[in-house]
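Subject: mismatched residue count in predicted assembly?

I count 519 residues in my input, but I want to confirm that the predicted structure covers every chain. Input:
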Amino acid sequence: MSTKIMVQEWSVWFGAIQALRSVSLEIRHQEILGAIGPARSGKTSFLRSLNRMNDMNPRFRSTGRMTLDGQNLYTELDSQQVRYRIGIVFALPLPLPISIRDNVTYGPRLRGERSRERLEELTERSLRAASLWDEVKDRLHQPAMKLSGGQQQRLCIARTLAMEPEVILFDEPCSGLDPISTAKVEETMIQLKSRYTIVLVTNNTKQAARVSDRVAFFLMGELVELDRAEVIFTAPHDQRTNDYITGRFG
Amino acid sequence: MLFCATLLVALASVIVIGVILVRGAGGLRWEFLTAMPAKGMRAGGIFPAIVGTLELVGLTVVFALPMGVAAAIYLTEYAKDNWVTRVVRLAIVNLSGVPSVVYGLFGLGLFVIFCRFGTSILAGALTLAIMTLPVIITASEEALRSVPESFREVSHALGASQWQTVRHAVLPFAVPGIMTGTILGISRAAGETAPILFTVAAFYLPRLPHSIFDQAMALPYHLYVISTQIPNIPQVQRYGTALVLLLLVLSLNLLAVVLRAQFRRKRSW
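Triage response: the counts match. Full output below for your records.
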């Protein structure tokens, strides 16, 4: 499988605090890469580096190199281009207080898409891909805030899909959801794998095991181990990984 | 003790409004509102003063609102937190503490004399606009800040530029707060006498202003004139004018309160 994103010796600081220590890894085309680790392990800082969401924090500093299809994410592409190609779904469902339809078409409209038919078509396709279409197709004009938490999160996935990105980042996407909603979101992620490269940060090791092709274990800003999911969860090489997945800490 | 103090405050405003209402209500007839003043303002109506105040207030909004909102957007969404920004913030706070008569003299110096606008609605509205700016900026900043940070983050994550984010994910949700603040600022400006004293107000001008370069009568100044400068004005004339001014200002404030309540009820985050 070919490399989609290459990360070399990536370090991140927020003010004086170092959040990531020289992380190197590759993210392969159309795989689901899970990132696990306890709180403050750097997994979210890593994820948010990938589409330059850390740029908005004035205390953010980084060294190292990240490339998307061989192009440097931080020097050869501008942050808007990066975010067009690498979408993100946040931990909490954060729809804007506008209609369901306007949430889905927010990105495309700002990118300059004016055609009504194209936007309609994009809305339906994105909502279908996020397994939400059947639940909302008759009330697209209603406020997104009226949906349940699980529906809101799938709406946020649809909104990201409507950008037609190449990579989707999930930042603990099920942390606020009940088990049934979680199952739906996971199912959605697996379906998306055939067309997108996915990076999933999760606190739920079982979720990482269910969904991921490969899993990266972060601890205190370091990448401890990266391997196929079944290796990480059955025979990890590092003692610390073993301790974490067997629940000795974290 | 505390209750008595509160009661006293309420009592004061009830008495003020009550007295004006009782003595002025008799004068509140249709021709009082729509007729020109006559017989050296001892009779007739206050139509030109009402029109003058409305024109002043309207033009003040035209100047102050865009500038105030633009400044607030810059301060909350673009400016970095450095000493320049802090100095600007301090200047705005100080601006709101300047006595209104100083604004009047400033307007006289800058707009009437230096810019050669003369004593005109334009000069008066610009003076009132500068006086209202700190209120609008502060209210707008507060309204912009009350929009959750997550809206900005989401918008950026969907590939929006900084301006697109402000335009589509922040400003629409701050509009009610901005409007409330603006109306409150404007209602204060509508009742001010000192800033318009040297810049617009005509002592006696029984016609409507021809353009924004013309002088105009205005309610607060007219009230001052008929209360202190001219002998033998019928009481109903004075209290009628006061009542009209009071009703104008109170209805603006009421509008602001209603808008705020409406917004609080409807917002969903």
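Chain B touches chain A at residues 80, 150-161, 164, 168-169, 173, 267-269 (CB under 8 Å). Marking this ticket as 'not a bug'.
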